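--- STAGE predict ---
source: upstream dedup step, 1 unique chain passed
mode: sequence only
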Amino acid sequence: MRLLCLAMVLSLIGGIALAQPITYPKDGKLIIPITITPTAAPKPLSRYYLTPQYLDMQPGNSVPTFMKAFAEQRNFFSKEPSDQREKWNQMPLADLPLAEIKASGCVGGLAYRKNFHDPNEGVGRPLSDVDEGARLLTSDWQMWFNIRRDGIGTLLPEVQQMRELATVLKVRMRYEVKAGDFEKAAYSAATFYGLANSFEQHPTLIGMLVGIAIDGIGLGVVEEMIQQPGCPNLYWSLTERPAEGFSPRKAAQGERVIIHAHFKPLTGDEPLTEEELQKMTAVIDPIAKLARGEEGEDKRPVPSVRFAELAKDEKKLAEFRKELTTAGRKPEAVAKFPPLQVVLAHNLLRYQILLDEMSAVFQLPHTEAMKLGTAVEAKLKADADAVLAKELLPSVSKVRSALTRQQQRVAYLRVIEAIRLHAHENGGKLPEKLADIQLPLPLDPATGKAFEYSVKGDVATLSPGNADPLTRVYEIRLRK
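--- STAGE serialize ---
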């Protein structure tokens, strides 16, 4: 995997397997039917926390520990067993072949310690490495040198491999859920979170998005788990989980480093040679062609052609020189730049300005972020001269939406578990309205408002009530 494959990673955010079959009404909303059993919260709550706890953590770097899983059991990750695990993960939980899964090495001696609470017990790999890595205090991806040297061409093979670890972990956790071993399933959920959270320290947006996708896989199994009879109520466990999701701050800063790796000479005051300038433009054309897909879908000229056109436009060159000097570049230096250097330096300036605006937007609540992010994207779309930004600037709305969906998924599950707890304490009845629940309920991160809730007969409907075509709508029934 290379950094330039951001579109591919964004596509997998929406491809996470869900707990129940989903129907697609004409309005595009995802209808998710679930049946839950009124159940009390466990005591002590910490037996079922869904995040690694400090008591279980130790010093060390999680990333090489995760990678040990592949070195220890290479055959385990070959094509045939990997394909089989994918099939198991697509099966309904009721159809999981527990004996086959156990024989495959996904559980048992290869899966975790005999006493999974005791770090001094002998370990069985590969998943014990993942369990251990998820409970180490730091995550250093060793990317400092790579992104400064290779920029957009940086290879990320370890990112793709981490998704394979998530696939195996999902098999194990679903096995535990079906077997009714909910304490071990909660332990696996905490491992999922630790694996996903390590990507918060990855200095690329691709890394962060893969982390969100992995976290979503784990939350999908938690969604299955709460529907099983005998599962303890996880309201407080979900409340203990950080509600803000993963921060994009490091990833956004990493994007700046990646661009700087290729275009640093454009920030200097010395004129560049034609060979140096052509080398820079050659980096962008392959990325543009890959992003545009099949030939003929996008009528825009490739970047190198557009740069050459702008370099012949004296009016544009004068405009670009003025903008560069206004931004702090020395007028006497800019005056000596050859035309193509003026064009490229101006493009880098526009990219930096838009990236700054995008990075600030990421830190805002969803509704404000989407409003300002849409404005940033509209500005970019209208700017025919911002060639570099059009090809390389990530989509604000898509990345912000991925972050919000992660937060919203947790908020949904908290509300569902609050409903389950309310029903346990009120004779097995659904609350007539959410205000009847005597627990703090989260707002919908996508709207900043309370979730919409209604009851008709024996079915409660939970939704955010917005116009997002990928909105989840839960149809909730109580098991008698």
